[in-house]
Design goal:
The complex is a heterodimer of chains A (113) and B (112). In chain A, the strands form two sheets. In chain A, strands 2, 4, 5, 6, 9, 10 and 11 form a seven-stranded mixed beta sheet that branches. In chain A, strands 1-3-8-7 form a four-stranded antiparallel beta sheet, with no helix packed on it. With 113 residues, chain A is mainly β. Helix content of chain A is 0%, strand content 51%. Chain B has 112 residues and is an all-beta fold. Helix content of chain B is 0%, strand content 59%. Chain B contains no helices and eleven strands. The relative contact order of chain B is 0.35. Classes of the chains: A mainly beta (113), B mainly beta (112). Chains A and B meet through strand 4 and strand 5 of A and strand 4, strand 5, strand 9 and strand 10 of B.
Chain lengths: 113, 112
């Protein structure tokens, strides 16, 4: 649906554990993004990647890590260093070009207890 | 860096009335301004966008206006319908970056 698949839809983890969220796209898009959504705070950029094997920090990168080994895949790891990891995580992609709209996945809701 | 402010945070209108959501941005280099609609439990989807060389753009009941001097842009929805109920996000991207910065969202409720 929409060419971007995030899995799983719901994820539960114990505090202190690292967890990896999957994002795969078959749109042949060059750029991929991870956003975090919290109530009343909109969408905040965690990391983004414009090309394979390269990525940049967004506004709230602390406690997160990413990799971009393949064009289609951009997994996000939420580490134990992230102080408040419970949130809704959205992955997006776009074709290269600064006027290109983002296409979002359906999101992963992570709950850490 | 870019900062986007969005108002109001909630908006309730009667079916058939118009709704207006306003955003301001801080980076004068911003040149791309999309609007996304997110229905409950679903992903955000692009509904309209505008570039800095255009002052207004319309698509059926939806229009966006841009005032570059004042650094603000607005979404206008006319003849609202219950299915317009959703959270709407504005965003801005500066010409020298690939980062799309979002506003905090507006929850629109359209009552029949």
């Amino acid at each position: 649906d929409g060419g971007i698949t995030q899995s799983p839809k719901y994820l539960f983890r114990k505090e202190g554990q690292n967890v990896t969220l999957s994002c795969e796209q078959n749109l042949n898009h060059d750029a991929m993004y991870w956003y975090r959504q919290d109530p009343g705070q909109g969408l905040r950029l965690i990391y983004y990647s414009q090309i394979v094997n390269d990525f940049q920090k967004g506004d709230i990168a602390e406690g997160y890590s990413v990799s971009r080994e393949k064009k289609e895949s951009f997994p996000l790891t939420v580490t134990s260093a992230q102080k408040n990891p419970t949130a809704f995580y959205l992955c997006a992609s776009s074709i290269e070009g600064r006027d290109s709209p983002l296409h979002f996945g359906n999101g992963t809701r992570l709950t850490v207890t | 860096g870019e900062n986007v402010e969005q108002h109001p945070s909630t908006l309730s209108v009667q079916e058939g009335d118009s709704a207006v959501i306003k955003c301001t941005y801080s980076d004068s280099a911003s040149n791309y301004f999309p609007w996304y609609k997110q229905e409950l439990g679903k992903r955000p989807q692009l509904i309209i966008d505008i570039r800095s060389n255009v002052g207004e753009k319309k698509d059926q009941r939806i229009a966006v206006t841009l005032n570059k001097t004042a650094k603000h842009f607005s979404l206008h929805i006319t003849e609202t319908q219950p299915e317009d109920s959703a959270v709407y996000f504005c965003a801005a991207r500066a010409v020298n970056t690939d980062k799309l910065i979002f506003g905090t969202g507006t929850r629109l409720q359209v009552f029949p």
